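EI: anyone free to look at a 639-residue chain?
SC: sure, send it
EI:
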Amino acid sequence: MNKSYLLIFIFIQLSLYVFGQTVELKTDKKHSVEITLSTSSGSIEIPAEYYEFNDSLFFVLKPKGDWEFKKGEVKDFKAIKIKQSEVYTFNGRISAITNDSKDITHIIIAYTRKDIDITKQFEFYYETYISDIMGIPEQHWAYYSEFNNYCNSGKALYEEKKYIEAFEQLQNIISGAEHHLSYTNFSSFNQVYNQLLPDIISTYLENENTKLLALQSNFNNKEKISGEELAVIKTGKDSVILINETFEPYYRITESKNIDLRQNHEKLISDYTVLYTAAYNAWRKSSLKVIENGFYDNENKYQIFIELLTRLLVYTNQVEKISKYDSIDVSLISNPANEISFFKYHIDILNEMNWKDDFITILELLNEEIAAKSQLIGQTHLLNLRGNTMYESQPNYFIINGFNELTKGKFEDFKDNLILAISKCTDKEIMYYLELWHFSFRFNNSGADENLLDKINVGLDFEKKYMPTDAIKQYEMAKRMGRCALPPFLIGRIKLEKEHEIFSAERSIKDAINIYPGFDLARIYQLEILIENKEYDNALAEIEAVLNIPNLSIWYIYYLKAKVLFLKENYKGSLDIIQNNCVPITSNNFEQYILFGDNYLGLKDCASAKENFQNAGDIEPDNPKYREKMQQLITECNN
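SC: here you go
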């Protein structure tokens, strides 16, 4: 059945219900009444969703012909029952409606909803008289609006060639969906289930196969392949695998009649996998100099290498009076026994992509560079890294440049780069390690007691071994050895993140701030506690004070200000902060685009919300929050 026939079929089915709702029931040999579905007030113009979950069904009775209802007769109509599947309802509840002259114009009879299956036809019964068959229009059935919304959204998205979004709407009606059994009663269900859904899937597969053929042709006509071209192939491969998982419930349920859809999809995945494997091997050969001339891309080797190198540089489990940086700890990557969560995501990618050996070789070469030339990287790499700063998700350039200066013994230049890195940092864990390095620099200048440093380092080691109570004991002893902001902050961090003791954590963090007002991360924790406690006005006041402190006009503080304004429903104010203060510092951040989108949703600007959620998806396409926000967008903007 083609689409035109489908529409005609649905129209006829609806017409049988919509135009046949008045039935006649004789009340004696000479008289009869017309019965029509109505509202509780007797109106036959029934609002949408009026009956979806109403506890009663209302029908209006009007005399047919030139006779009129008499007051003494009203109670007799209470005997009218509904007969459905050989079962009779209890008597209805009667109410008479009069005009200005107190004449009865019509009667309303109400039945308890649970006594009637409104998806099936029925008759009215009065003494020995039976009415014609009546059916309740399906737009008054339970979950009709919900079902109709899924179908309309799916059809519209299909026509827009948004096949995945269309399927995601229609998967809400297949077996396993919350109200699937109710949906099967609707006249258009079978057509949507058996025709529209397969059409969506087959069209998607045809389009993806066309893209694959073009990629295969392009690859076969080239001796080399760039990282961008490889990323396109990988995105295509990952996409068809991901969508296969999305389609899997439908494949499984309809496998007996749609086996060709599943087989076509599996072949598409296989062909993509073959192409990607060949393309990857070719690309790897042409990427030996990636560390010098690479560029950022979501799945590009250069990005993974630079981000992991940055993490290796900042990671530390001790503080000390700072000295020249002498080597990268290659064992953190090469030895699985040294696995640390701070590196896990990137190491997993190295293992998945078979890049680990290449990366270890680069680390070894960098250590040789440090030993031989007292520099971490050469000028070519540094210039290339600087040219990519606008695409960084974290301040990699300032971190690498800072450690490059540290290998040369230029401590002040190292400190200046640390401050710049903290100002751009959007990852609190990276910021934590940057702060430890900053304290090492401060200890170098302040002549800190070695016993103080020892206690802090023993505490840090206990934390690494997941022994927070023992770590706190060491930090408490360190507090007694001198006026230093780091021990109370470390105590507060454990109390907050490990023991979830907000009030004691807040007290310790305040102690750290009182000692060192310019402590960036302590300020952030303090603000986040206020936000968590919904003390939004106090948070805003504190933020304004913080922003007036030198070197504290950083991305994270501005982001928290935008977040508080959003929570206070000051959407325009929040947007201004993100646009004017956050983006100029760091433009490539997932969370700020999510906040952008949330603000536009608050302003009911669905187009701008969608654009910004998609911008977030471009940065982290696999982040669950991205899918959640896109689903929220569909829900809020389609109602």
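EI: The longest strand covers residues 104-112.
SC: 👍
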